[in-house]
Amino acid sequence: MIYAQSPLAIGLFIAFVSFVLGLSFYLGRKKSTAASYYAAGGNVHWFTNGIAFAGDYLSAASFLGICGMIATAGYDGWMYSIGYLAGWVVALFLVAEPMKRLGKYTFTDALDSKFNSKPIQLTAAVSTLLVSVFYLIPQMVGAGVLVQPLLGLPHWVGVVIVGVVVTIIVATAGMASTTYVQFFKGALLLIMSTVVVVMVLFRGLSTTPVNNGVAYHDFKPLTATADLVISDPGYSVVAGLDSAFGKAGFVKLAKDNKETIWKFEKTDAGYNLEQTLYVTTKEDGTKLYNGAAKEAGEFFPVGHIKELRMNGKDVLTTGAVGPLAYLSAIKDSTIVLWGKKYVVNGHEKTEVFYQKPTPGTRVLRPGLKFKVDNATPLETFNFVSLMLALFCGTAALPHILIRYYTVPSQAAARKSTIVAIAAIGFFYVLTLFLGVGAMTTGVINLTDNNMSAPLLALSFGVVLFAVISSLAFATVLGTVSGLIVAASGAVAHDLMDNFLDIKMTEDGKVRAGKISAVVVGCIAIFLGIKFEGMNVSFLVGWAFAVAASANLPAILMLLFWSKTTAKGIAASITVGIVSSLGLILISPDMWAVYGLIPKDAPIHFNSPALISIPLSILTLVIVSLMTQNDINRGHAVEAA
Amino acid sequence: MGHGPAVKLGRDDAAAFKTKLGVKMFVVYTIVYFTFVIINATNPKAMETVVLGQTAAVIWGFGLIGLALVQAVIYNHFCTKAESEMNKGA
Questions:
Q1: pLDDT tens digit sequence for A526-546
Q2: Which residue from B5, B57, B65 is facing A85, i.e. has the nearest CB?
Q3: Which ipTM did the prediction report?
Q4: Could you tell me the domains of chain A?
């Protein structure tokens, strides 16, 4: 076991959940109106709203996914931070004030403000629902990931806990309780992440990291002769060079009845052997971690510096350093990252994690996860497409857009976005230190990198781990509640009230919103269980691609092109959804989710934005030009 | 119909000015951001170059995050000024 439950962690978790539920019941005690349920009455202060934006946006993807990806793939994980933040520039300069001016409760209201068009109401509501559900999946996966170390419960229990708690939060007081939960969570996340980073910098870097008082695993290399006689005579060869392992570049050895796998490298005298970590999946599905059950604790955490250089000298430890000196030392050092290979032996499958010493300059520039070095045109396309989706996605996320309706004025919408940029930008700077900190202090769980940030906190002791894990859980609660408000608004306000014209009293509208929230919560629980094990930041990339393709072209063209028609908007949203979702469903990564071989997928890229966004814009332009009579007719009616 | 803002908004005579300024600010940031993306995509090795003691990639990353905040503050300054000058009679 890499981590064990602590009563303190459990106590803090229960205290936090009780606090947010108490707050929700307190805020929900007054009679709700539709305006208070969907937009918190439209009178939230801009600073509160700005931090709540951060609470909403800094989801499991940011805190768990990005830190985990930086910890295992360096700068490429930070590319997500840079892309996500850049998206806020689009939101501030182009979308914030017009959205506030045009809409009432949902983003569909804003799109439909000029037209009163049934197709817009339908397509925008469907788009809101789809994007919200896509975004909900990684949040729920993140919840499942967290409860395993925190409470010792299985993945599905975490998903169910979040689903139930959030549904209660949303169903009691809607946007009001959601806003204050996000405000507290956003503020706490910023404060506690800063605390962890300061502690990381005070501890500095070392070639022999200490993890919560436990010394790092001693990776003693071995040598072997050309006919595989091992330098340590205690070892015997279980699977040699001719075995399935040997063909993949590994040998399996045994000592004191314990089997280990070693990566070999040919030398003039024979072989150098480096120890690996491995997970074996037996024919009946049982998994063994370094040859033993998970509970035996044989599968230790990893992450260390091979050669540490500071100011041009080789050192064993740096002591306390400033943030720039910290990154500079990483740049000059050699970090051990981890590669992964699969070895199939009969009905047994072994996942072998092997050491990959990597220069710091390589760690602190893109290319370890994204294929940008000597990339094919398709690989370059995939990378640019992802960065485009991140840039365009933020300003098109329904749960972010509805937050513009909680403030009283356009100036307040603008100022709250600037507070959000400051808070989120600061947090994203911290993610680099959190990720690199995890990478070099022996805390990474190679079977699930999502836990890197909480496990980095654990390296300072269980108290910090308990606080950070509870906070990470709160992160999920905050984001999921925002998403469920957005999704319930799409069903109850856009579809039932506007599109279907179902006559409802004020109470009826609120009730419809609450019932919708419960239904969306159940769907989110199901999907959260289904997608267990995927990197959460990676999944969010898909939600961004769908939002950027379906929503952003419609929003921007409505604001900046006077010839835009209702039919053009509806067609653009439809094409955006179908093309982005269609390309995702036949992508290599999705092929892996289906249990198929990724290279057999019909297309060979994973990010659809570079195709689906231009296609959506083109559709809007063509259909709008073909339906200009609608505008002219509208003007005639207005004139009459 | 459920359209129109959730709260009553006053007239905003500065809206056109703010829209133009927003577009200009957006264009500047977009050019810088996609220059960064294109360098990464076409010449990633250049991002290893050491500038001011850090890799160019780290400098670009901090630069993009910092630029977003600086532009946001400048934008807010001019928008607030325009609102107070143009909306006097509103």
A1: 888 887 766 666 667 778 888
A2: B65
A3: 0.90
A4: 44-204+374-639 (1.20.1730.10)
